[in-house]
Automatic annotation (TrEMBL):
This is NAD(P)/FAD-dependent oxidoreductase. The keyword Lipid metabolism does not apply. InterPro entries: FAD/NAD-bd_sf, Geranylgeranyl_reductase. Signal peptide: none annotated. Keywords: Oxidoreductase. Its EC number is 1.-.-.-. GO terms for molecular function: oxidoreductase activity. It comes from the Bacteria.
Amino acid sequence: MHLANTGVSDILLMEKISYPNHKVCGEYVSNEVLPYLKSFGFNPFDFGAKDISKFELTTHNNKTITAQLPLGGFGMSRYELDFQLYKLVIKAGVEVLQDVVENVEYEDDYFKIKTQKNGVVTSHLVIGAYGKRSSLDVKFQRKFIQKKSPYLAVKTHVAGDFPEDKVALHNFEGGYCGVSKVENNHINLCYITSFEAFKKFKTIEDFQEQVLFKNKELNALFSESKPQFENPLTISQISFETKPTIENHMLMCGDTAGMIHPLCGNGMGMAIRSAQLASSVIIDYLQGKIKTRKQLENTYSKAWKQQFSFRLNVGHGIAYLFRQNWLAPKLLLVLRWFPFLLPKIIRMTHGSIMRPVRFSEPIMSDIKE
């Protein structure tokens, strides 16, 4: 959207799936990205998003603390959010090709993108934004893909009672569950756990009954609500390993470049901000402000690290501490004694308010088939 609305022409978006569809996601988005989204003509509240200003945290042994969110956020399903942005992309004149990318090769300052159904597409610039894990990561021999990740996630929507203005994070032994309302008054329940903790049980239902429901808040949410999905969505092999921001000369974006722990509740905000960073440096490159590809790649990498390295490190630290079941209640006790610390910690995993996009004259981006 940023590139299209700033006047970059000849943009091709490749998607292996059709819209709309559900994805495993916490579906809470920090308000830091709101002005940026609105500059494209997208206001999530026009589509039923929930305005969230309160935060609640519980430990596996049912200790609770609450706080006001420093910036606040909104709750919106990926089903609706992605679909509405997809429609805006089409409206902006971007060509969308529904196909599977099998490989990307770089030669003589051009990329050759091999697709499953449409042959080879060539382009001078490529952004990799294909999510947490893909067969492309194997093709590129990315280091993180060579390590087996111990995490899996489960998501469902339910109908029931839950405050519209609150996002909750409920800890249980081996993981934590995020809870917030989205459009249609559905409640999004998305939890992450270790495979080690999960493998002791035969089914998702058994795991929830024996582990999640020891947290009384989760027990109430699941038992007093009505499922809206026929079956929960699951994803495994979730990696929080450090990833290169440049791979085979491609600018990596969103979860493809790096993931913050869901415990911090800001994955979507990071993904949107990284799209802004990638778009900005590409525009400078196409306008001649950045002279070479090497300078383009270095500028993006530096900007990405400046923006995200600190919050990722904080996220890793927070997640590690809360994985220690004996320690989590003690940390919560400290936060109860010093409640001003919680908003400060939240700020450390979030950024400042993003600026709206300023539009300009059309710029050629040189994509060829």
